[in-house]
Batch of 2 targets.
Target 1
Amino acid sequence: MNPTEIIRKKRDGGTLSRDEINRMIQGYLDGSIPEYQLSAFLMAVYFQKMNFEETTILTDIMLHSGIVINLKDLPGIKVDKHSTGGVGDKVSIILAPMVAACGVPVPMISGRGLGHTGGTLDKLESIPGFRTTLNLEEYRKVIAEAGVVMIGQTAEIAPADKRLYALRDVTGTVECIPLISSSIMSKKLAEGIDALVLDIKTGRGAFMATEADAVRLSETLVAVGTMFGVRTIGFITDMSQPLGRAVGNWNEIVECIECLRGADVPDLMEVTLTLGAGMVMLGGKAGSIAEGKALCKEAIASGRAWEKFLQMVRLQGGDVAAVENPASYPRSAVSMEVRSSSDGFVGAIDALEVGFTGIMVGAGRMTVEERIDPKAGIMVMKKVGDRVKKGDILATLGTDRTGSISSAASRLEKAFSITAAPPEHTPLIRSFVDSTGVHPVPR
Ligand code: URA
């Protein structure tokens, strides 16, 4: 099969067979198809899309490019959650121990931050000693003992995705539903899970900026999961302003610690409890989202979620004393406050701009090789809808990059729109998606 013919067929809107998709992906992995041909192929898919059958074939090929973990010998329905990525999205770190404390095992393989979005792995690694690179034997040991484990993608899991994602990132082919779906689902299906809850973000800070695209992505993701025998549901959630107050790495861990110890950060906890409730329901411990939410709240209120988090930190080599006493952590060399220049209401906070400001201060990276500074970050002090007076602190920044702090602060200030009237309320959790379609959020 000639790769040029396959590229031309897709370029002209044709439907590819399993053999043709396999030839492109395997050829790229074994070196017989060069990067420039795969790049052209990805761009053809970007413009011409793939139908559902092609998308499931691509997912299947990517899934079986590596090992598929089998956790069937461990008791319980194993459930994971995946977010399409956002700014200040630290939900997994509260949710995984909380759901495990409800008796549902959570084996979680997470990613690093890229572009303006943060990554769970970078946040976890800001805990001194915390290891996210467990081998498979260690992964099984931690999930068996604690009922929760959080690691990064290993070389054995969906290696095709690792190679393809890096190429998509530099060829402008990330924002494509069949490519995103096969990328996410090949990794998730390899983890050994029985069920999956998806958090599909929409808004300025998300890969899918419009709600219509987020809905289409969620329908494809849910259909692919269901097709592979993994019960999959999704929630479309807002990512037009950062989630919670902290944007960075260690400061996000601190916010998670506070929530696990009972603090209420309203938007962050609303998303965490809703997704957690979905997981507890799929894990067979609750009959409805409402019941699942009550169990999750109780896991936090009783201290069991916090204990579970400490157990996971200990088993993965993390410094328990540091998370028990977060004030002992080193601080950034400089900090700066961003203040409101007028009276009014916070009308909007551009999550994309906040994410890019985070990169300027060292909390994120633009290329996979860049090192991040775990201490650096932003605290959002006023959220959309809050009333402000001239001179009120909107946000604070901390960094070791003394030369960048002033320009970062002025960029952050522009991310806030102050309006005379309060903004219209938009729901944080927009809709619920299952294999039968898109529905209002169950309460
Ligand atoms: N996250 C992934 O894992 N893959 C994508 O393609 C986009 C977001």
Note: The chain has a mean pLDDT of 95.
Target 2
Amino acid sequence: VTRVLVVEDDVVLRTAIRVTLGREGHEVAEAGDGGAALAEVRATAPDAIVLDLGLPDIDGLDLLPRLRALTAAPVVVLTARDDRPTTIAALDAGADDYVTKPFHRDLFTARVRAVLRRGGVAARSGVVEVGDLRIDLVARSVERGGVPVPLTPTERRLLEALVRRPGVLRPHADLLHEVWGPAYGTETTYLRTYVRQLRSKLGDDAADPRCIATEAGVGYRWIAEPGGRPDPPVA
Ligand code: CA
């Protein structure tokens, strides 16, 4: 059983999240403010934390490093829609992923699942299939409709970086470090170019992606659970 701590001062939303995560089989602890969150982390060592950034006592951005000092558990922050600077600041302060309010239940639970498995399920089996696309990480081959898809070394490294962490947000700087090397981190135009090339070769559509989702201004993620139909928002 995984233990998830939900830090949210809005009781209605907190209850909805508790019920949703409970249905997924997680054990849920709750905190209504930052002080209670720190106490819960000390007392129960959660496996993951869902953190609303708007709390009554401690600003979420100030709370993040304090949580980080206590636990390595992944943190998913809840942010207001259209507040990209705060989202980026939260990722810089140690958050692993984010969900903007209002969110759909399926999207939310998928994010929590993704941060909990972090290491990646794709890495274990070595083969990822999306529609007519077959990516074999062990044989390092990609086929589309049974036809080999030739990739450049950089395209292959980028594809692997994404596929190995299904559903996990990969911020621009992380991908640049991993694919281009430690000296890189701000060259987002490289990423844009190579993601566009990859999408074209994989037959992926940026406007309606089945493989690579763009998180505008933040990063990219490999879509782990394609075809998931969104439920009505819970928040
Ligand atoms: Ca709040």
Note: Residues 226-232 have pLDDT under 50 and may be disordered.
